[in-house]
Design brief:
Pnp Oxidase, Chain A; alpha+beta
Length: about 190
């Protein structure tokens, strides 16, 4: 098989059936312009041959890293299946219409939280954040909560996949897919 997207779809479907919580959770690793790395968990909200999509505050540290250096890696780890998938590529912003469409599916409290949070910035106390949330609740009472201008998504366009499967005695299986000029090649890696 030289189509990593089909293999990902298969593994992801199995993970959705077996993982109790957040089968779509992924680690995203970014680095700023000086190469200082940072990793955190986000939720996959869309995927296909065009890439892997997540949403965030565009004023966050991760968004700052992406603005300086759009190269990133994502990692899915499905413990119940004893599998992981690493994907490396380039991040780009999703369209405003895609961000609007996804934002409209979020719970009202999540929408209000996007307005209340200055993600990644220092916070003096939990009470301050809760007060900001209550302020947003009052501000948008009786109306729809629009998407904040600083909240959107990113799509990672893959250049490399690695599918890792646990095997006995640490004799794991690692399959790598690399894209060159639009074509995918597949090979094995030593564990």
């Amino acid at each position: 098989m030289t189509d990593p997207f089909s293999l990902f779809d298969q593994w992801f479907a199995e993970a959705r059936a077996s993982e109790l919580n957040d089968s779509n959770a992924m680690t995203i690793a970014t680095a700023d312009a000086s190469g200082r790395p940072s990793a955190r968990m986000v939720l996959l909200k869309g995927h296909g041959p065009d890439g892997f999509i997540f949403y965030t505050n565009r004023q966050s540290r991760k968004a700052g890293d992406i603005a300086e250096n759009p190269q990133a890696a994502i990692l899915f780890h499905w413990k119940s299946l004893r599998r992981q998938v690493r994907i490396e590529g380039t991040l780009s912003p999703v369209s405003d219409s895609a961000a609007d469409d996804y934002y409209a599916t979020r719970s009202r409290d999540s929408q209000l939280g996007a307005w209340a949070s200055d993600q990644s910035r220092p916070l003096d106390s939990r009470a301050t954040f809760e007060a900001r949330f209550e302020e947003m609740t009052r501000r948008f009472a009786g109306s729809d909560v629009p998407r904040p201008p600083h909240w959107s998504g990113y799509c990672l366009v893959p250049a490399r996949f690695e599918f890792w499967q646990d095997r006995a005695h640490r004799l794991h299986e690692r399959r790598a897919f690399v894209c060159s000029a639009g074509d995918w090649t597949e090979g094995l890696l030593y564990p």
